[in-house]
Amino acid sequence: MKEKVCEICKRVGKGIFCEYHAKAYYNIIEQYKYWKEAYEELTWEEYLTKLIENPENGKWVKEVAKYLISKKMGRVVYDD
Ligand SMILES: [Zn+2]
């Protein structure tokens, strides 16, 4: 089977992201629920922008957020 590489860092992974970026992606999705409650109106793009601007966020999270914005990838794709 052909190995897949992470769309962001080109490390070998199982899906479109490597394990580090996949973990960051998962956290981003999880946190969005709480942020939406706190901000009442917060779009996915606004949320991602805030993540990038927040100095407390790690580089993995910021890289994933930037990638999602650049690809205009929505949470909807992975919604259950
Ligand atoms: Zn990666």
Q: Care to describe what's here?
A:
There is one protein chain. The chain is mainly α. It has a domain of 54 residues. It contains 3 helices and 2 strands. Strands 1-2 form a two-stranded antiparallel ribbon. A hairpin with a 6-residue loop joins strand 1 and strand 2. Helix 2 packs antiparallel against helix 3. The chain is elongated and about 45 Å long. The relative contact order is 0.15. The C terminus is likely disordered. Zinc ion (ZN) binds next to helix 1.
Topology at a glance:
Layout: E1 4-5, E2 12-13, H1 19-39, H2 44-53, H3 59-71
Antiparallel strand pairs: 1-2
The structure holds zinc ion.
Which properties best describe this structure?
80 residues, mainly alpha, two-stranded antiparallel sheet, 3 helices, 55% helix, 5% strand, disordered C terminus, binds zinc ion
Offer a quick outline of the entry:
This protein is mainly alpha-helical and 80 residues long.
> Based on DSSP secondary structure assignment, what is the total number of beta strands?
2
Q: List ligands, each type once.
A: zinc ion
Terminus-to-terminus distance: 28 Å
Q: Helical stretch count?
A: 3
Stretches where pLDDT is under 50 for at least 5 consecutive residues are 76-80
Q: Identify the overall geometry.
A: elongated
Helix content: 55-70%
The largest beta-sheet arranges its strands as: 1-2
* SS-derived structural category: mainly alpha
Whole-angstrom Rg: 13 Å
Q: What percent strand? A: 5-15%
SSE sequence, one letter per element: EEHHH
What's the mean pLDDT score? 87
Largest sheet at a glance? 2 strands, antiparallel
